[in-house]
Design goal:
This protein is an alpha+beta fold. It contains seven helices and 13 strands. The longest helix is centred in the N-terminal third of the chain and has 38 residues. The chain is elongated and about 100 Å long.
């Protein structure tokens, strides 16, 4: 049932701004990425293939020729795999770089010495990474298509709201702090490894024979008959009667095959670096996009808006007075915000929470208001709206999170 939207006050910035008709809005909606590019498929294929590759990879045996020391390449591999499971969904800009890097590392580090089972598993990982990269590229290309479609219809003007740009400030600060923690952990880890190498070079090397072992140590006998108990992380790797090299110095004996392992510091680096990089990138993107709205000229289009049951703004084509087809949804605050930057826990800015379209819950047709949409809507974008408040006065709002466009529901 059609209704008469609340008009924008006369003499406002809406003068001369064209409508965004349903036909153009439908073309914009069809420009979304194909179904195969949904982040869900990229994340699932990556997780399944990586888990399989880890399961079939043979466990390395500690030896003096191949010590069980810190695995920096493995740390990078694990970090990129974990990070991509999030970046595919929220930051395809990082995924576009991280996926090829991980592909190269897997091909260089895992393929040359892999058996047939491990080889096929790692090739599957590379294929999954290729799918994720193609999906991220398709999503970014869809954003460009949607921006071009909006540019064809819109009029371009400058928008100069009051107040400084605050979007992204908190995320950038938090990201820098976490990245500093990760960098500190890496420096401490590398320094500890270097000190251990120097200590090993000064230690006395003694050839011994394993005569016993427990869950945490080995009992060895030297050529002159001395018996030594030395700690071991992997005692099961040393059979009775095998020869092992023990390093002896003022701090006590230890196995040459088991140097210092900076595993704890590596975990700290990942725990700080992955969210730090994500927050820093998201904050910088949000700040750049919010700033772009002020640098102008930016697209101006007339649309209809209405609040849903959860307080999100739903956007409709200018001639969709019956509110039949919500194009997307976003959460907005006034410009400038009344209480600083709204970057705490925010309601998801997408108009959908289901997998394929608008929420299945019953939805009451909202009261529609005419509005001027400033900026081009696309997944991850930033927008502003000029509309009418409840008291009939002009109101300027902006999004408090990146726009998440839904997959349209089939008619």
């Amino acid at each position: 049932m059609s209704q008469t939207p609340v008009p924008i006050p006369a003499g406002s910035v809406s003068e001369g701004v064209p409508d965004w008709p349903a036909s153009d809005a439908a073309a914009w909606s069809r420009a979304r990425p194909a179904s195969w590019a949904r982040p869900l498929w990229s994340v699932l294929t990556l997780l399944v293939t990586v888990a399989h590759a880890i399961a079939v990879e043979p466990m390395p045996v500690c030896s003096e020729a191949a010590p069980c020391g810190p695995d920096w390449i493995g740390m990078v591999q694990m970090g990129l795999a974990v990070g991509l499971s999030y970046w595919y969904a929220r930051l395809p800009e990082i995924a576009l770089v991280a996926a090829p890097v991980l592909m190269v590392i897997v091909a260089w580090q895992e393929l040359p010495s892999a058996g047939w089972t491990s080889l096929s598993a790692n090739l599957a990982v590379i294929a999954a990474l290729g799918l994720g990269w193609a999906a991220a590229r398709a999503r970014l290309a869809a954003r460009q298509r949607q921006r071009r479609l909006v540019d064809r219809t819109a009029v371009h003007r400058r928008w100069e709201p009051a107040g400084p740009v605050r979007r992204g400030t908190i995320r950038v600060a938090a990201g820098l702090a976490l990245c500093a923690v990760a960098a500190g952990a890496l420096v401490l880890g590398l320094r500890a490894v270097h000190e251990d190498e120097q200590r090993a070079a000064r230690a006395t090397r003694t050839a011994t024979v394993v005569v016993g072992r427990t869950d945490t140590s080995l009992r060895v006998r030297t050529q002159d008959g001395r018996r030594i108990t030395v700690g071991s992380v992997f005692p099961e790797d040393y059979g009775l009667g095998t020869t092992v090299t023990v390093l002896e110095d003022e701090s006590g004996p230890r196995l040459a095959a088991e140097p210092y392992d900076a595993f704890g510091l590596q975990l700290l680096a990942l725990a700080g670096g992955l969210p730090g990089l994500s927050l820093l990138t998201a904050g910088l993107l949000a700040r750049r996009r919010a700033t772009a709205l002020r640098l102008g000229p930016v697209p101006f289009l007339r649309v209809l808006t209405g609040l849903d049951d959860e307080g999100r703004v739903r956007v409709y084509a200018a001639d969709d007075a019956a509110a039949r087809t919500p194009l997307f949804g976003c959460t907005c605050v006034s410009v400038p915000p009344e209480a600083g930057e709204c970057e705490g826990p925010v309601v998801e800015t997408g108009a959908v929470h289901g997998a394929d379209g608008i929420d299945d819950a019953p939805f009451t047709v909202p009261e529609l208001r005419e509005a001027v949409m400033i900026g081009a809507p696309y997944e991850g974008g930033e927008l502003a709206f000029l509309t009418t408040g409840p008291d009939g006065t002009p109101v300027a709002t902006h999004t408090v999170g990146p726009v998440r466009t839904p997959r349209p529901v089939a008619a």
